[in-house]
Write a structure and sequence with these properties.
By secondary structure, this protein is of the alpha/beta class. Helices cover 35% and strands 17% of the residues. 41% of the residues are buried. The structure holds adenosine-5-diphosphoribose and zinc ion.
């Protein structure tokens, strides 16, 4: 077996030769920004019952869902900053080594780090949208002391603009994410278990077209033994920093 350093160099050569590299990220890339992932040790779903993010439950009991949404996604996530792995992807894009990022994350950290071409497969937490009249509000300017937050135009409940369980994927993000996977020559999967459909299908779309699949994760995922060509095991920050240095030499 090759050493991790050899594998990182091999991955960097593949990226250098690629005319179109796309990254696909999950909660693992934001773990070192202090955002807990959903599954595994310290996973959010060990602590909270995910039903509060089920669209039917939310529509019926917004006053029960909202305090948890506020605590997890606004009081806490709201303070998070991009880490070295996010910045490395931004630098790769600036240097023409990365075409786009497809993310399942709703935390905005890729954009804050500087990535321009970001497809948010599960929407985002930046905005709230009125469930009735579809008016958008910036979460950062919303008064969360009133629970649930209400639309100032029609008085209906506001919902974060991210995808709840039971909701469809935003049309444009869905279309372009699969298209990017199809068109990519090299596809880098970072920090996702690959448990949630249809997002989990995106890497298979990339593989179908014969793309090289690189993967970064602290532990093997659903993709590692089925889809991944080069598995770089380790923390996203550590591996991305090493990969970026190898790309610059
Ligand atoms: N570096 C790299 N990988 C990491 C790190 C780290 N520091 N920490 C955790 N990981 C890996 C874990 O090993 C795991 O494979 O990140 C992955 C996180 O997996 P999940 O918590 O399942 O997150 P994700 O795959 O993004 O979840 C998909 O599920 O509930 C939904 O909508 C939510 O978008 C989310 C979707
Ligand atoms: Zn409204």
């Amino acid at each position: 077996m090759n050493s991790l350093t050899d594998e990182i160099i091999r991955a960097s050569e593949i990226i250098k030769q690629s005319s179109r590299t796309v990254a696909f990220t999950g909660a693992g890339i934001s773990a070192e920004s202090g955002i807990p992932p959903f599954r595994g040790e310290n996973g959010l779903w060990n602590k909270y019952n995910p039903v509060f993010l089920d669209i039917n439950y939310f529509n019926q009991y917004p006053e029960r869902s909202w305090p948890l949404i506020k605590e997890i996604f606004y009081d806490f996530f709201g303070q998070a900053k991009p880490n070295v792995a996010h910045y490395a992807l931004a630098e790769m894009e600036q240097k023409g080594l990365l075409h786009a990022v497809i993310t399942q994350n709703i935390d905005n950290l890729h954009q804050i780090a500087g990535n321009k071409q970001v497809y948010e497969f599960h929407g985002n937490s930046r905005n709230l949208v009125c469930q009735k009249c579809s008016t958008y509000y910036e979460a950062g300017k919303t008064d969360f002391s009133i629970m649930p937050p209400l639309c100032s135009k029609c008085g209906s409940v506001l919902k974060p603009d991210f995808v709840f369980f039971g909701e469809p994927i935003p049309l444009a993000a869905n279309k372009y994410s699969f298209r990017e996977a199809e068109d990519a020559e090299v596809f880098i999967i970072i920090g996702t278990t690959g448990e949630i459909m249809p997002a989990s299908l995106i890497p298979y779309e990339a593989k179908k077209n014969g793309n090289k699949i690189l993967e970064i994760n602290i532990s093997p995922s659903n993709y590692t033994n089925s889809t991944t060509d080069i598995f770089l095991q380790g923390k996203a920050t550590v591996i991305m920093q090493q990969l970026l240095s190898a790309l610059m030499t």
